[in-house]
Amino acid sequence: MKLEELIYKRFSGAKELTKYLSIFSGCPAIFSPEAPEDNQDGWEGRAQYPRIVYNLDIQANEERKSAGTLLVSLLCQNTEKVTPEEIEVEIRKCLRDIVIKPENGILYVFTWSRTDAFTLQEKNLDFVIGSDIRFDILEYSLQETTDPDPIMAINQYIKKLYTDCLVIGFDRIEEITEATKEQPILYCQLVVLEKAEETNTVAWMDSRIAVHILCPDSEKRLKMAAAIVNQMSLDGEIILLDKSPMFIKRLQVNYKSDYLKDGQIFVTGHYGLLRYKEKPHMLQGAYLEYT
Q: ω before 84 within 30° of 0 (cis)?
């Protein structure tokens, strides 16, 4: 399914959200990119509000570290018992700490940006009140490189520490995967890879890796971040897939950083690339002696 379709699936499957919405052709009044006309048959004489209209703008914004923007327009009438603020809470819950995987295989997460309230006056003198709720769309691309791969190694390391969590790049991710307190989602991102030094036989690399912990429970996020860093500090190294060590050169936890955009744990690993392959021993000068 496409990203737009998966967003609709998420919204329409949320009972705590759809119970507030009107009905169009037997389905919740959720539309993209625009709502049908007021006189269209699907309304069948029902109230046309509250309703949701959402639009995607997949255009990278380096300053905001986003791959695009999702605009969710929520429209209500001033005669409704429910307010836009009440419905907005449920919309934000739908997109909080979830990973969406459309048919192109790219993983996306959403982080709330801002909400703008507005009022419109219709021809019948009724007022439409609503909110424009904006989300930044973040792309969680797979980070595997080549052997020895620091991302694959740290994915396996964290998975051994927390077998119940989902690690992006290690576990299978469904079309819509929600992080929970019981099953957080972790994402390891390669931020910087640079050559630190070199010798005749080894090129030493420094890799800076950011670890994102997606979990609706902030207390558990903090505990997991501290536990991972403490264990890395005690071990001092992470074994790469070729069985060579990646030494932990620096560790940092920033509890105030945006765990979706920036990550919470920052690891600098130091590992070596062999310039020459190991040569097997060759048997030379062999002879047979018969007695």
A: no
Predicted TM-score (pTM) of the model is 0.87
- Partnered with residue 64 across adjacent β-strands are none
Neighbouring residues of 174: CB distance < 8 A, sequence distance ≥ 6: 101
Separation CA 166–CA 161 (nearest Å): 12
Contacts of 208 (CB under 8 A, 6+ apart): 190, 191, 192, 193, 266, 267, 268
Is 88 within 8 Å of 115 (Cβ atoms)? yes
- Cα 174 off chain centre by: 13
DSSP 173: -
In this predicted structure, what is the pLDDT of residue 64? 79
Dihedral over Cα of 152, 275, 267, 64: its sign: negative
Integer angstrom CA distances of residue 4 from 73, 98, 103: 15, 15, 11
Place of tokens 């709502």: 35
| Mean pLDDT, rounded, of the chain | 90
Task: Calculate what percentage of the chain has a pLDDT beyond 70.
Answer: 93
- How far from chain centre, in Å, is Cα 243? 30
Give CA separation, 167 vs 75, 99, 173, 187, 230, in Å.
Answer: 38, 12, 9, 6, 19
pLDDT in tens, 72-128: 999 998 777 888 999 999 999 999 999 999 998 999 999 999 999 988 776 654 678
User: Hey, is 282 helix, strand or coil?
Assistant: coil
